[in-house]
Each structure stands twice: as C-alpha cells, then as structure tokens.
C-alpha cells in the first residue's frame, strides 16, 4: 500500500469530536504562538491594511489548507526544488518549512510595517545563500525573477483554490483579482532591485504600496500577475517547465507522511487531504498522486471536517488577524 493510500485509508476513521482537540494541538505545535509584535505602534496598518482582501482570506482557517497545497505545487518546479532540497532543514524538521511559510505569510500580511520589512529582509538575506546547480546541471538562484515568481504564483493560486473550496465566505471574482494584485506587490518586495525600506517614509505604507509610489519591477515587467486571469496565464507559462525528480519525490514523502508524533500527524493529515484533493489533475500526475473522484471527495470532506473543528476551536478569525485589527485601529485622540 502506498503512503498516500495509507493516509487516505485512515482519514474516514477520524470523527469531528476527536479532531477538535487534535486540531488545537496541531495548530499550536505546528505554527506556534502568533508571531506578531505586540509592541508595534497603535494605528500601524502594515503593508496591506485591514481593508485588504488578504487580511480576510488569511483570517479564515481554510488558508491552512492553501498553505499545504502551495508546498505541494511548489515542489513541481525542479530549480525551486533544488534550492529547497539543498538549502533547507526539512529532513530534520519535516513541518518546519510549513511553519516558516506560515510565519512569513502572517507577518507580511498582518504584521506592523517594521516587522513586515524585517521579515522581508530576512528572507532576502536567506535567498542570497540559495544558489547552486540542480541535478540536471542547470544553475539556480532563489533571487532569480522566474523562481521568485513561481513561489509567489504557486502560493497565490493555492490560497485562491482553498478559499473557493473551503472558506466559510469565499471571495467574489473582483476580490479574487484584488488578492492576486496584493500578493504580487508583497512578492515583488523580495526582488533585490527593490528597496522596501522606502515604505517607512510614507505615512501609510499600505496605500503607498498599492498606489505605485514604490517601483516594483517584477510587477511592471509582467512577471507577477495582477488579476486572476493573468495568474492563470502565468501558471500556464510555467506548465512545460515543471517536473518532479528525486528531490521532489523525497520532499513529497515528507509532506505525505511526516515522521512526527502520531497525534500531531493525525491532526495534519485531514488538511493535507484537502490540499491533495484540491490539486488539478495535471499537478497530481506530476506528483504521482492519481485520485479517483470518490477518493478525492472523501479527502476533501475530511478537510472540511477538520476546518469545522478548527473554527470552533478558534471561535473567530485567526489570532493574528485579531491582533492586527486591534493594532491597526487608530489611537484615541
């Protein structure tokens, strides 16, 4: 029996009452406490602001499924996968990259301006070290426009899909376009050609970023999409460039059956199931995860059950969203 089959076979046996404490423990142990700086100035709206679509999408538990899905999609690019395989710690900490992804999204979305810019600087610093040669002989550089774009669009497409499939209040078509544009602007700040610290000089960095006050070459050159249609076009452009080799298959095994505490794994598997069930057929074929319609339906149902449990545990938007909303409210005169 394959790893995927073993995971899928266990999923229907997990009842919602059991998922609630498991989900709570998994959420705490996988993602940790909300990483936002509680000492940030009152009224700081961060890089996106509370009126952004990104705040709304990431506040919903469905975004957890999108985060896992994005990792599955990202590993189908051989050069991106080479960088992960040769420069990350996923062997020692199988869920560490998921935590890192979660922290990056949380801070750049909900964090105050200063901490968001520090997070971007840290990622850019890490990217400078992610250079090398892939097994097929091609060089890779994490700061290359193609790889920066791939990681961004794979994530954006995944979060949009998880929102459509699992969110309690899915985005409208217009808001889906807004989400693509917002994510493109944040991703563009990772470009070495951009000085993101200039945003500090603006009274409202979120507005300055949205109105074009800061030049973003990856957006201006057309690498990063600004609408869902452009996102689909960019994903289609990447399609012939995708493949899964030994490095990708190795990482996939960790994502499918991470060597972690069984209780932690049991909380993780239903959200993983939703991520796999929501993949398009082409990506499933690349990953070697063909699913019949019945299996896909069961896996998606398990994710929906897990998200119900998570929402009941959280009893509202994510802690990060709640913290950010309190901070973004202007101080009383």
TrEMBL record:
GO terms for cellular component: membrane. InterPro entries: MPAB/Lcp_cat_dom (IPR018713), Sugar_transporter_CS (IPR005829). It holds the Pfam family MPAB_Lcp_cat. This is ER-bound oxygenase mpaB/mpaB'/Rubber oxygenase catalytic domain-containing protein. Residues 55-306 form the ER-bound oxygenase mpaB/mpaB'/Rubber oxygenase catalytic domain. GO terms for molecular function: oxidoreductase activity; transmembrane transporter activity. The keyword Transmembrane helix applies. Keywords: Membrane, Transmembrane, Transmembrane helix. It is a multi-pass membrane protein. It comes from the Bacteria. It comes from Euzebya pacifica. The keyword Mitochondrion does not apply. It is found in: Membrane.
